[in-house]
Specification:
Nucleotidyltransferase, domain 5; about 220 residues; 5-stranded mixed β-sheet
């Protein structure tokens, strides 16, 4: 019973912002978040989610959930959400415009991909200047907003599936397990085989992994 009450209290706290906005008259409240910003390979992926209400058991920052928890939770989010949008920005664009701009672009694409236009947008500590709509940036938003947390879960599961597909193309890099992040085995593969077409060449250690390792 104590664990249940604790979970209900956590969920209630995560819905404070949404409840406040609904009290002000907002209905279509979208949360957006991105994943993959720090990876050496693969795209940055964002999701935007509009939930029908403020009750979504199990929702949390995707980084605090295991893969086994995220996948069924993502399925529940997709089944209950009013609308879901996905934005993907590929490595070549990341190299061209930098990762911060690419992350914002992915979120913009996700929001614009929603089948209905949100009345207000909740974001994790950023603003998307090119989107003309009310926006609320929240520090640690993926732990303070149920809508942002739901978006983080959808984006994470979507990107993980992408990286699993890339693993079949480039098995020596173990993308199915490292998801493109800079693990020791990933750097060893880079040193041995060089970067693939899905690597971010502007990121330190991608083109010259040996130099990266010797500097640490």
């Amino acid at each position: 019973m104590g664990a249940l009450l604790s979970e209900l209290a956590r969920l209630a706290e995560m819905a404070v912002v949404e409840r406040s906005l609904r009290a002000e008259g907002f209905r279509a409240i979208a949360g957006t978040d991105e994943v993959g910003r720090g990876c050496l390979a693969g795209p940055v992926v964002a999701a935007a989610v509009i939930l029908p209400d403020d009750v979504m058991p199990g929702v949390n920052d995707s980084k605090l959930l295991s893969h086994e928890e995220r996948v069924p939770l993502c399925q529940r989010i997709l089944a209950r959400a009013v609308a879901v949008g996905i934005g993907v920005v590929e490595p070549a664009s990341i190299d061209r415009i930098n990762i911060l701009r690419a992350s914002k672009l992915a979120m913009k694409i996700a929001v614009e991909g929603l089948p209905c236009r949100p009345e207000i947008l909740l974001l994790d500590a950023v603003l998307i200047e090119s989107l003309q709509m009310p926006q609320v940036p929240l520090i640690h938003g993926d732990r303070r907003s149920i809508s942002i947390a739901a978006a983080s879960v959808v984006a994470k599961v979507y990107r993980d599936l992408l990286m699993e597909s890339y693993d079949r193309c480039y098995p020596q890099y173990d993308f199915a397990n490292n998801r493109g992040y800079g693990t020791e085995s990933h750097y060893r593969a880079l040193e041995r085989f060089g970067p693939t077409p899905i690597h971010r060449r502007s990121f330190e250690g991608v083109d010259q992994p040996g130099l990266f390792e010797s500097s640490h």
